[in-house]
Amino acid sequence: MTMSNYSDNVSQISKLCDQQGEAWAAINPEHAARLRAQNQFHTGLDIARYTAKIMREDMAAYDKDSANYTQSLGCWHGFIGQQKAISIKKHFGSLKGRYLYLSGWMVAALRSEFGPLPDQSMHEKTTVPMLIEELYTFLKQADAWELNHYFRDLEEARENGDEVAAKKAQENIDNFQTHVIPIIADIDAGFGNEEATYLLAKKMIEAGACAIQIENQVSDVKQCGHQDGKVTVPHASFLAKINAVRYAFLEMGVDDGIIVARTDSLGAGLTQQIAVSEEPGDLGDLYNSYLDGEEIKDPSDINASDVVIKQNGKLVKVKRLSSGLFEFKKGTGEDRVVLDCITSLKNGADLLWIETSTPNVAHIGGMVSRIREEVPDAKLVYNNSPSFNWTLNFRQQVYDAWSEEGKDVSNYERAKLMGTEYDDTELAAMADEWTKNFQRDAARECGVFHHLITLPTYHTAALSTDELARNYFGDDGMLAYVRDVQRTEIRDGIATVRHQDMAGSNIGDDHKEFFSRENALKAGGKHNTMNQFG
């Protein structure tokens, strides 16, 4: 919202009021324009279209320079997403390149009516679009909150005849940046067949999602990407769901919506189905070429329940477990990942997600270089997962690099590098530097356009609550809250210290004054204890 739009709205509403005459005499055009200014997005589709454009521009900027990678943190509640956006604006002045991530893991663990659940698509599918809507409701409220302060500043400056302050307030309004930013939303494995995927994708887009991430696991046995027992589907099944999401975007008028195709093949050793193959070398045949089995040389070796396919010109009895699932050959995960990624990009996906077991630039980069042989502009969304032990991983990576260089590592025990006794060592310092640079390095070397942490705020909520509980219920009592929470809020300029204002009390007071004028019963008078915070 710019002041020119604001001024145009004042003029347009003034004309409307004039046309209505005495009946609208109580309507202040400037107040009505304020209401319009604080609500730029009337529907979730407005948001999806707006944020899709932002992501597309960011993707183009990354293609020109990998330093333009983007980031997000997973948020499990609207308030958490709102405070993240407010914090970024406060510290960096802009939200450019910063998104939100909606994690299926956190929806399952924190938002299901069943209570805490594992990341296995057992939660209600409707909770996903409901959380998207909630996040954007809180982000829009952040717009109203910030603009309300600027408009109050403008009114006060005018009342005081302070032209300098009035000009500054106007500049803040002129240059206002919305807190509404893109959400990459996790649809898991689609919650059913391709029709179910399409229906849920529409709801997510209606709620505001411009980017939907979908994975190639079997929907009804879906597992967290960092758990064992993952089962993938043949490419045809996955591509049908990519098509379903694209159709949903097109139906809803978000023509540039983004699809993130995730492959779990690196850690998945099983498939539920043998792919259909029409001729040697087609996609189904390639998928089946990775199935484990034994060559059949005599038909009498085939039992009644055996499944036999032609693989590389030979009859092969495919290895099948008692569960009915089929096994892939050991060591084929990386090759399957590369095939998955190339196939997805050539069939409608915009971005890739490769779920890995460790955060290793060389490993990720090796796979991406193979993918880029077929699709030169391939880009990744990468999960900087809390499931990795980042400290141990990077200390071991430094240890291994030093060993290869011939550097003396006799003072370190590789398996125990997590120990606090190593915290002040040269190796630990180097590992921290590698960790600090991981996102920059992966953006440059591995085609990672977007770095996210799936469930950081799950951990930060637990950590901060543990600290407060330990001290408050211990000897510190009330000092624990005052010292560790409120005093820090005041000194760091955290807006929530004036929690009534953050929740909309001042906005409500101003609206009451719009509606009731001198009869408004307002909460923000001199007796409101929030005034103690200035």
From TrEMBL:
Binding site for Mg(2+): D186
Co-factor requirement: Mg(2+)
Any one biological process term the GO annotation gives: carboxylic acid metabolic process
Active site per UniProt: C224
Magnesium found in the keyword field: yes
Positions of substrate binding: S103, G104, W105, G225, H226, R262, N383, N384, S385, P386, S387, T454
Keywords: Lyase, Magnesium, Metal-binding
GO molecular function term, any single one: metal ion binding
Reaction(s) this enzyme catalyzes, per UniProt: D-threo-isocitrate = glyoxylate + succinate
Signal peptide as annotated in the record: none
InterPro entries hit by this protein: ICL/PEPM, Isocitrate_lyase, Pyrv/PenolPyrv_kinase-like_dom, Pyrv_kinase-like_dom_sf
Cofactor binding notes: Can also use Mn(2+) ion.
Family annotation (Gene3D superfamilies): Phosphoenolpyruvate-binding domains
UniProt superkingdom: Bacteria
Protein name: Isocitrate lyase
UniProt organism field: Salinisphaera japonica YTM-1
Upper lineage: Bacteria, Pseudomonadati, Pseudomonadota, Gammaproteobacteria, Salinisphaerales
